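quick one, 406 residues, struct below
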Amino acid sequence: MKTIRVEFTNKRGETLSGRLDLPEDEKPRAYALFAHCFTCGKNLKAITHIGRSLTAEKLAVLRFDFSGIGESEGEFGQSNFTSNVEDLLSAAAWLSEEYQAPQLLIGHSFGGAAVLQAAQRIEGIRAVATIGAPYDPNHVRHLFSKELENLGAAEVAEVSIAGRRFNIGRSFLDDLDAQSVEKRLSGLKAALLVLHSPLDKVVGIDNATQIYRAAKHPKSFLSLDRADHLLGNEGDARYAGSMIAAWACRYLQFEKEPGIETDVIDNRVTVRTGNEGFYTELFANGHPLVADEPTNYGGTDLGPSPYEYLLSALGACTTMTVQMYAQRKKWPLRSAVVRLSHEKIHAEDCRSCVEQQGKIDRFERELELQGELDAEQRQRLLEIAERCPVHRTLHATVEVVTRLKE
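---
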């Protein structure tokens, strides 16, 4: 994905810092707005992984720091649940003005409670997803309940949350008490997806049950199985993101139906590899793909390797070419199956090769033709398989031109 640093101003005049995650060289089909968990911030690894899964489906995501958190201006001690909701409204307004109005809201933990509140006040929201969200925003009190005893007659008390010190104001607590949970959920007019782990020790699974029961249809629940509250495992975060993307596409409104006319900016294949392992994102004619390396090569094995993609290209070209020829001849070929392998061999072991020194690449194909074909037809289709364009490219003189983008 491509990430752009952005800034916008909230209703109090504070500058909030955000990141807009976009699909690489692709036009987004829709925009989403992400609200982070209590004191977490936009750069939490889980949020980044979720964003990657969403952008792979051509959904852009705006994530930002609430007032007083991370790189955003403001004092945390002067913020509260209501100000978080107001920040979400400011983010939605900025997104609408600069790009496109968000249709999807995603909230993690305390941010989940905030998006449920904000959804009623943002025009055009069609889907809301919560991850490990509390039923009642007041749930956050348990994080610092003992330290609240020090508040006494004071307006602000210092508390420790996840090893960091924060100032919690009396106004923050009063604001939590003023929230109407039932009204927040019964008034939701968007589709709802509740994601929660039954092993969540921070926000118990009973909160998901309460949210689900209080909300009206359409609503769905997805168990995150063994995931922890912060989705610290990359696989859990990617799973959550991919499931949100798949679910949301049922409810989002696209300018053009996907698959009828592509929104590709140009006809290039675009590939991006970050600096964490070898996980690679690809867009080929508008279709999202991923590549990786096995774990023993330093990768995370979340996708095929480059050579496996090369084998796939050769195999797909082979079966398509054979089927195309059979259809033109009106031969009864039900399906063509090809199994491929690749290895490096010594050139001297290749009898038909011109090169007799060093090593060469050896591709092996096993072609299976299913259908009532006679021996002559089968032999002819074997010959046709040798003529597939990718096969011919691999045998041809190839020029690869590389230049740096200015």
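The two ends are 19 Å apart (CA to CA).
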